[in-house]
Design brief:
By secondary structure, the chain is mostly helical. The protein has helices at about 10-15, 45-55, 65-75, 85-90, 95-105, 115-120, 125-130, 160-165, 170-185, 190-200, 200-210; strands spanning about 80, 135, 155, 210-215. Among the domains are: about 60-135, no CATH class; about 155-215. Helices cover about 45% and strands about 5% of the residues.
């Protein structure tokens, strides 16, 4: 009697799917009815195959939302407030400039409290943040609680002194004056640039997430008010 193949059936299927061995032909008549097809993220073979690929290349970028869900099912997570550049670059659709912003804020001690913070900071669509959500882990490190953020955004490259003082009292008069001077030299690029140039504490920057934006081009000089 002919001996069976030495490979475990699941292992053989994975190797065939990975293209490492040739598939074993089967007569058309002997193929069973496949029945209802499982969705890719719930397909154990597809999931195990992705696991093998990630083991071989831990920096492999996930290609779509389905792979994100499969990686999450395998136990992979991205700790948002401790993630490295390689961690961030696994997410499909994330751009290097966005990774740079996230890392600069992290270096300044800024933490994100949830998906809404990340969506507002990167100015991405709800669909994009939803696609990443299964992998995202928001752990808060240290003391203090996340700050709430209202929907209205203040353009820090164009707002006047009175508007800054009224809308962002946590900056204080001295920081507002320094902001006005700094943006005359060059407009602020983003929150990380603002933090660095004004030497803002991380807690203040966290409070600004979602509250401010950075319009293109410098603001004109403030004219003295007429009597």
């Amino acid at each position: 009697m002919a001996r069976g193949h030495w490979l475990d059936p699941l292992a053989r299927t994975l190797l065939e799917a990975a293209g490492q061995i040739a598939p074993r032909p089967r007569p058309e008549a002997s193929r069973p009815d496949p029945g209802p097809q499982a969705s890719p993220e719930h397909d154990p073979i597809e999931q195990e195959l992705l696991g093998l690929k990630l083991e071989q290349d831990p920096n492999r970028r996930l290609s779509n939302a389905t792979e994100v869900r499969q990686a999450a099912a395998l136990g992979w997570r991205l700790d948002v407030n401790r993630a490295t550049a390689a961690d961030w670059l696994r997410l499909p659709g994330l751009q290097p400039a966005q990774v740079d912003l996230l890392l600069r804020l992290q270096a300044g001690g800024v933490q994100l409290s949830g998906p809404d913070d990340l969506q507002r900071l990167l100015e991405i669509s709800p669909g994009q943040i939803e696609a990443w959500a299964p992998l995202l882990l928001f752990r808060w490190y240290g003391d203090g609680a996340p700050a709430s953020t209202p929907p209205n955004q203040l353009d820090l490259n164009r707002a006047g002194a009175a508007e800054l003082a009224r809308s962002l009292p946590q900056l204080g008069q001295e920081r507002c004056q320094r902001l006005l001077r700094e943006r005359q030299r060059a407009p602020f690029l983003d929150l990380a640039d603002l933090q660095q140039r004004l030497q803002l504490p991380a807690a203040v920057v966290e409070h600004l997430i979602g509250k401010v934006r950075f319009g293109k081009g410098p603001a004109g000089p403030e004219l003295p008010r007429s009597a």
